[in-house]
């Protein structure tokens, strides 16, 4: 990470991370948090941004201390494990938690492709599952042939979606009803503590904060650039999110979402439809922007899941053929096919979208808490140089993050915790089989 010859500047890094963060969440999950917490979900998104910024900076410090490819999923394996079995346990736990968030997040995006497309072409609403399957298949094929939104295309996407969200906020500002903000803390169905229990859902929107760690070798002066870019990108993204969220609260009351739960997943369109029923083009613009964001998120998550599966296969945890990369396309075809299939299967059950969302949120809490604990352990084992980036505050921030996130788990729906526990149970069965086979082979 000490190489100063990387091509990516601070501006490039900010663009990359904003592209990873400004996706489907603001067009969908903001409605979920609004229904849970009412107007107070504005605080939810601020708190989530702070937690994920700390998460990103923790990853940046680990990358300085332990510059190794595989980053977020290798750190727990190498730092927390003493024996081979222990190393594999922590590495697999981290990877398996990410797979939950990635697969469930991709399925969520696929499910709501038809929701926003249906705002433009109403008949699509009658074929929600079919639209999700087609979206998954299309994004899977794009990944297999290594066609992705990168470089200048990424910049155009970020700027376009940001401009549309600013247009939405500008129009919405003229229709704000201050009565929608009172009472501030008790309107959501989760009660006065709703703005706290909704934080894990909002955290999903900022997961792209760690994108740069995996490409640190391409960044100019990464030890300086990565922390600076993380702070700038999450600050700009949060300001944009707060403009959109605050405007939505002003245009449409919480009771609209609690009375009609389906509105939770297209809050921006619902707000525009209520405040400006005669301005059809604005609803179409929002729908097109949301559709683009959903498909982009789906594309990125399928590849992220596939790369994680491929890495696990290369270490012997999964069948070897899943870790092979095609010589022409340079992509793990089998892993992409598997990840696409898993996402597609889950997306075929839109009636369970609430469980999909909440389970992914619980897994995100586990991921962030585990990396925070990993940093605490790494500081005991390794000495970093003066040139390395250091998370300010010593042990205070990572310890606080671990404690707060564990408390968040107590506020999550029991069904989500049980489902997530079941997910990890399956993962540990796979772990046990892999360890047993490895021991038998030895």
Automatic annotation (TrEMBL):
Q: What is this protein called?
A: APC family permease
The species this protein belongs to is: Bariatricus massiliensis
Task: Enumerate the InterPro entries for this protein.
Answer: AA/rel_permease1, APC_superfamily
Mark the transmembrane ranges. 12-36, 42-68, 89-115, 127-146, 153-175, 195-217, 229-253, 279-312, 333-353, 359-377, 389-410, 416-436
What is the annotated localization of this protein?
A: Cell membrane
Transit peptide keyword on record = no
Q: Which domain of life is it from?
A: Bacteria
Keywords in alphabetical order: Cell membrane, Membrane, Transmembrane, Transmembrane helix
Q: Tell me where it mainly resides.
A: membrane
The residue stretches assigned to a coiled coil in this entry are none
Q: How does it sit in the membrane?
A: Multi-pass membrane protein
């Amino acid at each position: 990470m000490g190489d100063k010859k990387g091509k990516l500047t601070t501006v490039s890094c900010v663009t990359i991370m904003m592209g990873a963060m400004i996706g489907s969440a603001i067009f969908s999950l903001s409605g979920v948090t609004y229904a849970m917490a009412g107007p107070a979900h504005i605080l939810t998104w601020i708190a989530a941004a702070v937690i994920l910024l700390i998460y990103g900076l923790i990853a940046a410090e680990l990358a300085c201390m332990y510059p190794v490819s595989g980053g977020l999923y290798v750190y727990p394996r190498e730092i927390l494990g003493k024996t081979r079995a222990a190393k594999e346990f922590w590495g697999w736990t981290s990877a398996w938690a990410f797979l939950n968030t990635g697969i469930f997040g991709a399925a969520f995006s696929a499910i709501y492709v038809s929701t926003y497309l249906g705002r433009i072409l109403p008949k699509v609403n009658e074929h929600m599952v079919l639209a999700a399957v087609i979206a998954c298949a299309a994004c899977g094929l794009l990944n297999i042939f290594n066609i992705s939104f990168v470089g200048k295309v990424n910049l155009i996407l970020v700027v376009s979606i940001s401009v549309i969200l600013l247009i939405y906020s500008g129009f919405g500002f003229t229709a704000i009803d201050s009565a929608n903000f009172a009472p501030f803390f008790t309107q959501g169905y989760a009660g006065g503590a709703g703005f706290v229990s909704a934080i894990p859902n909002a955290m999903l929107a900022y997961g792209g904060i760690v994108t740069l760690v995996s490409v640190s070798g391409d960044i100019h002066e990464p030890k300086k650039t990565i922390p600076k870019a993380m702070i700038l990108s999450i600050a700009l993204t949060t300001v944009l999110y707060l403009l959109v969220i605050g405007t939505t609260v002003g245009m449409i009351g919480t009771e609209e979402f609690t009375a009609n739960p389906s509105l939770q997943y297209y809050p921006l369109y619902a707000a525009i439809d209520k405040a400006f029923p005669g301005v059809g083009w604005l609803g179409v613009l929002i729908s097109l922007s949301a559709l683009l964001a959903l498909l982009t998120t789906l594309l990125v998550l399928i590849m992220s899941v596939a790369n994680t599966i491929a890495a696990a296969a290369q270490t012997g945890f999964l069948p070897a053929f899943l870790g092979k990369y095609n010589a022409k396309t340079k992509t793990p075809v089998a892993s992409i096919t598997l990840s696409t299939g898993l996402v597609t299967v889950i997306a075929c059950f839109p009636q369970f979208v609430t469980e999909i969302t909440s389970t992914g949120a619980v897994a995100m809490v586990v991921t962030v808490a585990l990396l925070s604990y990993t940093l605490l352990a790494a500081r005991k084992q390794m000495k970093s140089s003066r040139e390395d980036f250091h998370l300010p505050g010593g042990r205070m921030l990572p310890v606080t993050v671990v404690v707060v996130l564990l408390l968040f788990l107590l506020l999550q729906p029991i069904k989500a915790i049980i489902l997530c526990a079941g997910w990890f149970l399956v993962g540990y069965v796979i772990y046990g089989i892999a360890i047993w086979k490895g021991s038998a082979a030895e």
